[in-house]
């Protein structure tokens, strides 16, 4: 009964928290755009890494592309050794 009450309590605060969270996201993005960034994520990446999110995503895309065949081979080997369930 206690767990059920906790679960139901969390469910009731969800809309209240979500509404406030969305407003915080809007305000953070407005702040970042006022400073010349695309959004708050672009601002944070630039502040911490010294380059924007476009460059970060380009680097990650390149990494994924260059390692794709290795990952596919590793997944195929895992599936053959442990069964396809191991990939789930």
Which key terms come to mind for this protein?
88 residues; mainly alpha
Decide which structural class fits the backbone: mainly alpha
Number of DSSP strand runs: 0
What fraction strand? under 5%
Which value, in Å, is the CA radius of gyration? 21 Å
By DSSP (H or I, 4+ residues per run), the number of helices equals 3
- Report helical residue fraction: over 70%
Q: Could you state the oligomeric state of the chains shown?
A: single chain
Uncertain spans:
none
Q: How confident overall, as mean pLDDT?
A: 93
The shape is flat
- What summary fits the major beta sheet? none
Question: How far do the termini sit from each other?
Answer: 33 Å
Order of helices and strands: HHH
